[in-house]
Amino acid sequence: MRRIMVFGTVTLACAMALTSCAAGGSSTGQAAGKKGDVTLTFLTFETPNLNAAYWDAAIARASAKVPGVTIKKLVAPTADRTAYAKQLDASGQLPNIMIAVDSAGFAQAGKLVPWSDAQLKDFVSPQSNPINGRIYQLPYNTQPTPLVYYNKADFAAADITAPPTTYAQLLADSAALKAKGMNPFVVGGGGADTWADMYPLIAAVGTDVYAENPQWLADRSAGKVTFADPAFTKAVSKIAALTSAGYVDKAGLSRSYADDEQAFRDNKGAMYPMGSWFAASADAKKPSFDMGVFAWPSDDGRLVVPAYTGGGMSVSSTSPDTALAQKWALAFMEDKQNLDASVKSDGSIIAIKGYTPPTTMGPVYKATVDIYEKAVAANGIVNAFSIETGDGALPPGMSATTATGVQDLMTGRKTAAQFSSFLDTEWAKAKQ
Amino acid sequence: MTSNLDAARARRSRLGATARRLGTFSAFGAPGLVLYTTFVLVPVALTIYYSLTNQNPFNPPTRFVGLANYIRLASDDDFLRALRNTALVTGIIVVTANLGGLLIALLLDRRGWLYNALRSVFFTPVVLSSVVVSVIWRAILTDDGLLNSMLRSLGVTHPPGWLSDPNLALFTLAWILTWQMVGFCVVVYLAGLQGVPVELHEAASIDGAHGLARFRHVTWPMLAPALTINTVMLLITGFKVYDQVQVITNGGPGNGTTSTIAFQVVQTAFSGNHVGYASAMATVMLLLVASVSVIVLRVLQRREVSM
């Protein structure tokens, strides 16, 4: 009897241990839109700006334009919707339509339907993020990632009369703010929101690496450069120096993304490097201070803005009706009200021909667009490191690994050189 | 002749009874067996099979690679760190939850509505979803969360970074797991305490044993089965911890400071797409849990007999 008990207990233990590793995550689904003949699943994600009400209303508008479709909304449990899509795919449940999911891997494996030139004719940058020459994600908006949002009152209190235009000025301003007892930067994201720690590094790589060599990541892929090269390590050392000088509040490492945004609103720091989507939120929920925005400064003062154009819909090749799914996805993306809602909720800079944003947009959004347009005019737009998709992207899983490495930089567990070397090692592992 | 017929009849009757018992057993056992095979044994077998391949759903074709994944594991820093973290967290919760559970059970081993209510209070974390528990603790333990706000109001100018300090975060996780599991230990120890015959206590009292001596020589030996159950369950909980890591720290702060084997498996499979390699990790985890459970069970059961 005892042997049977031992065997039973051990078997149960093994089963619990192993089955606990199975892909979990029941989808938070709900039906939206009106009843139709074909039911399509649609993977979204929610943030403080893009909440459930935003998605439900947008789904309903698109469904009204495409009869015969019932949409079942799925919500990724974290902002990492690509990882969630992979989990769903592993259990044979890849959603029929997905928004802002990295196409890399899915496309090469034939799991996505490419968009045709005719379908892309209204998009400003129809060839953004190609995979083997084809487009799998609608390039519907551009997001400067990051810009630096700042508290004008804090700057004034530290006798800073204008936002910095060179990196040396940024350091001087940070020192001035710190001398006045203010925390210069709010940077952070802990737990599932570790990705939010990345923005200062994305900015520094933009100004120091991509501005000099826009094809740098493609060169890395071809083995022509490494992360340990001086140019990349110099960019990393800027972030290490900012944290070791005490200009970045390490409390951010434990905050969620939403809490970090709130920390900036609550004046727990003077500058907040963040994607352009923050502009809409800043205008909609005005903090107690006036807010400005500037581009992360380069050493020589040249205007450089990392940006990503994409973020739209992808359609699974296993959808019950791929043509209808693409039609619905396009209807969603090109609907004026949906685009307006995206601009108002997420600060999108829409990359669809003929679109003009609502005239009621607030000053922070307008200032954000102004910087972007100046950078376009100055030929200063570069890729946003780690945000890239398509052929020139980091290998799968490396964005998340890089974000954890940034945390090591911020806590002092890695030097700039160690961080660069770490990325080279992780690259090799990811490619195995 | 008659006795031969009787014997044959009896044999047939016995066979019939055995067949009926077998039929009844099959009728009741088959659904469970089918479910267990489908949802446990087949996935386990598939995992072991995948571990011998280079399966990557985004990079076909899948090839048989023999033990290459296992050989690679032996020198994979990320996996070895996850293994160390898992062992440390498991060790901490086995000791602290057992100790805490025993102390609380001893305090609650009394009659009265207050003690009944307190038993429910201590058991509540066990039935809560680990994600809910994680979200609550996260709100408490962030650098500007409830705990540090309270510490600051008490004059602590630089309270610890419970989740942001890489040297502390793993212990914070272990504390949260202990908090969630201690109620389970309390209930098991209480059941054990209530099973100790009153006569033994009376006999010990007559022999002059009081307080600590009575606990050591009467109560503690009688709690041996409860210790076995708690230890094995805590071992399993510790080895498979995933939810809390995912929600509270995402394996950080930094690279892998709080990653556990289960977390590493999910990351490797669904972020890096290396399903074959992740399956090898899961298989190692299976072997670890199995072997540690067997050893602990054997040792503790031997101890039960010797006591």
Features:
heterodimer, A: 432 residues, alpha/beta, D-Maltodextrin-Binding Protein, domain 2, five-stranded mixed sheet, 15 helices, 12 strands, globular, B: 307 residues, mainly alpha, MetI-like fold, 13 helices
What does this protein structure show overall?
The complex is a heterodimer of chains A (432) and B (307). The radius of gyration of chain A is 23 Å and the shape is globular. In chain A, the strands form 3 sheets. Chain A has a 5-stranded mixed sheet with strand order 1-3-2-4-10. Chain A folds into 2 domains: 12-138 and 312-354, Periplasmic binding protein-like II (D-Maltodextrin-Binding Protein, domain 2); 147-307 and 369-431, D-Maltodextrin-Binding Protein, domain 2, CATH 3.40.190.10. Helix content of chain A is 42%, strand content 12%. Chain A is built from 15 helices and 12 strands. Chain A has 432 residues and is an alpha/beta fold. Chain A has helices at residues 2-19, 52-65, 81-90, 152-157, 167-179, 199-210, 216-221, 230-244, 257-265, 277-284, 322-334, 336-346, 363-377, 398-411, 416-431; strands at residues 30-32, 38-44, 69-75, 97-99, 139-144, 147-151, 271-274, 291-294, 305-311, 313-315, 349-350, 381-383. Chain B has helices spanning 2-50, 68-73, 77-108, 113-127, 130-141, 146-153, 169-194, 198-206, 211-222, 224-239, 243-249, 261-270, 275-306. The longest helix of chain B has 49 residues, at 2-50. Chain B is mainly alpha-helical and 307 residues long. Chain B has a single domain (76-306), classed as Orthogonal Bundle (MetI-like fold), CATH 1.10.3720. Chains A and B meet through helix 1, helix 3, helix 14 and helix 15 of A and helix 1, helix 10, helix 11, helix 12 and helix 13 of B.
Short summary:
The complex is a heterodimer of chains A (432) and B (307). Chain A has 432 residues and is α/β, with parallel strands linked by helices. Chain A has 15 helices and twelve strands.
